[in-house]
Design a protein that fits this description.
The complex is a heterodimer of chains A (271) and B (264). Chain A contains ten helices and no strands. Chain A is mainly α and 271 residues long. The radius of gyration of chain A is 24 Å and the shape is globular. The relative contact order of chain A is 0.11. Chain B is built from six helices and ten strands. In chain B, strand 7, helix 5 and strand 8 form a beta-alpha-beta unit. In chain B, helix 2 crosses helix 3 and helix 3 packs across helix 4. The longest helix of chain B has 17 residues. Chains A and B meet through helix 7 and helix 8 of A and strand 6, helix 2 and helix 4 of B.
Chain lengths: 271, 264
């Protein structure tokens, strides 16, 4: 049987998917054990026990300066920045993308501007943001927004502009105005695409968050990773990276679930 | 053909040109209320252009179109309903909501949604229309859950709920398989009689054009310049009135001797 025709059963696919991850973990453990056999004080590849100890200190012992549990304080600070950034970017992508997509005169006026902003590398704007907005939360959230919003705006605008012309004409023959076409025809059909755009933007959003935190911050997941790097604390960095990955996966799955729940028509509702 | 009253729709000297390519030239037409006009012709003869002009989706380069004696605005409006071959229904709305949409747009300019009594009345009206096209049991299905024939039934219901002066059909049954197509022919004839519709239908199926229509227009180029084929546009080269009344007994007439009109 050709490989393109091979179907994988659900149970098998979970097993197959877990296999490479398991192999990677085993490979790491093997390498770490080898290094620790040669040097019990090794910091580069910590064993699980070492990682647990490293994180436990951040999880359960209040920081001497601030009195906070650092792991949770970092997570809260980062999630707040990410949430604000993603939320504002998503909302503006929806509003601007919708108007650009539906109304040709607006597209002609502001389309080139959006394209121009989208091609500027956001990290290059980071100094400007720090100078203009200071080193506080605003600059970090602004970096996330500037980093992901233009791409999302363009995606939504293109998707809305690509709605079949027949639909727009049909809506007009049913008496719909520009406004009614926007809120009843374009908006609902843009929503699943918007959720898709948010999913794709999660990766870049994390990149911009960690960058901003690495450069100027006093709390946050990215800040902690870059801080403990000075002490070669791989026993903290690796669990933090794992935690970030877990948060990202949960967010992605939540978005998929939301899209399927709220917009069943967009997911090939079964016959 | 004698014109007893002023016609419902009249096209006067309509030209459609794209750059120096002439698609339609000098189209003069009078369409009376209650007629079922089939438009046939080879590909590229401007059938769809003619429909788009009447629909208001396209502005003719020259000429005027009068609906009830008043010039049409060059924009689509609720006085002309349309059913396309595809993409005529909104995929994000159920059949019922697709049908209510036209009523909501009219009565709720800001929210485009109706509530309470107004919603119940619109809902009843839409349900009645869905039953009329045979979708009474499918009101809660999304278009993706429907067959092609059901989607076209829905598109017709959606258009008719607005009571348009003219219903325009652009190859509405072209994508359906033959059995379903026969059902749809029966349905559209039924609706045409029950609601006293005026219909213009573009089709490439000659048999369909003659079985359904009371009048068949064949579009083609009257002149042809082999060195510049784009310089002459198409116009109505045959205009055949098939029957005056709506007697079903004469349904099967006339499509045999006139087959040479087709180019395919």
């Amino acid at each position: 049987m050709r490989w393109v025709n091979r179907k994988v059963r659900r149970g098998d696919s979970i097993l197959l998917g877990a296999l490479p991850i398991l192999l990677l973990v085993l490979f790491y453990l093997f390498m770490a054990a080898q290094r620790h056999a040669a040097n019990p004080m090794d910091k580069i590849l910590p064993l699980p026990g070492g990682m647990a100890e490293g994180v436990a200190a951040l999880l359960f012992q209040p920081d001497q300066l601030t009195g906070q549990l650092l792991f949770w304080a970092d997570t809260l600070a980062s999630m707040q920045r990410l949430g604000l950034g993603l939320g504002i970017a998503t909302l503006s992508a929806l509003l601007i993308g919708l108007v650009l997509g539906v109304l040709p005169p607006v597209r002609a006026t502001f389309g080139p501007l959006v394209t121009a902003i989208a091609v500027v590398p956001p990290i290059a704007l980071l100094p400007i943001l720090f100078i203009a907005l200071g080193l506080g939360e605003t600059a970090k959230v602004a970096l996330i927004i500037i980093g992901i919003a233009p791409v999302m705006v363009r995606d939504i605008a293109a998707h809305v502009a690509d709605l079949p012309r027949e639909q727009i004409v049909k809506a007009q023959t049913l008496g719909a105005s520009s406004w009614q076409i926007m809120i009843r025809v374009a908006l609902p059909q843009a929503m699943p695409r918007l959720i898709h755009a948010v999913r794709l933007s999660l990766g870049p959003a994390w990149v911009f968050l960690i960058s901003a935190e690495a450069i100027a911050s006093d709390v946050g997941l990215g800040y902690r990773i870059f801080l403990v790097r000075r002490y070669l604390s791989m026993d903290v960095i690796i669990p933090y990276v794992g935690w970030i990955a877990l948060l990202a996966i949960v967010m992605d799955m939540a978005l998929v679930f939301l899209s399927q729940r709220a917009f069943p028509w967009a997911h090939g509702a079964s016959h | 053909m004698s014109v007893p009253l002023s016609p419902l729709l009249s096209l006067r000297d309509i030209w459609v040109e794209y750059g120096d390519k002439v698609v339609l030239e000098k189209v003069d037409l009078d369409i009376e209320a209650g007629s079922f006009v089939s438009v046939i012709g080879p590909s590229g003869a401007g059938k769809s252009s003619l429909l788009r002009v009447v629909l208001g989706q396209e502005v003719p380069t020259r000429g005027t179109i009068l609906l009830d004696g008043t010039p049409l605005t060059p924009e689509c409006g609720p006085d002309r309903g349309v059913v396309f071959q595809r993409y005529s229904v909104f995929p994000h709305l159920t059949a019922l909501r697709n049908t209510i949409f036209g009523l909501e747009c009219e009565k709720a300019p800001l929210s485009a949604r109706l509530f309470g009594t107004a919603h119940r009345m619109a809902r009843d009206e839409a349900m009645e229309m869905l039953k009329a096209v045979g979708l009474g049991d499918s009101a809660d299905l999304y278009p993706a859950q429907m067959s092609g024939g059901m989607q076209q039934r829905l598109a017709i219901a959606q258009a008719l709920v607005k009571r348009p002066r003219i219903l325009l059909l652009d190859e509405p049954f072209g994508a359906l398989d033959p059995g379903i197509r026969a059902d749809m022919h029966a349905l559209i004839t039924q609706l045409w009689r029950d609601y006293s519709l005026t219909i213009i239908m573009v089709t490439h199926d000659i048999r369909e054009a003659f079985t359904l229509g009371t009048r068949v227009l064949a579009l083609d180029k009257r002149r042809h310049d082999p060195h510049a084929p784009h310089r002459f546009g198409a116009t109505a080269i045959y205009d055949l009135t098939l029957r005056k009344d709506t007697d079903p007994a004469v349904d099967e007439v006339a499509h045999l001797p006139l087959k040479q009109v087709s180019n395919d």
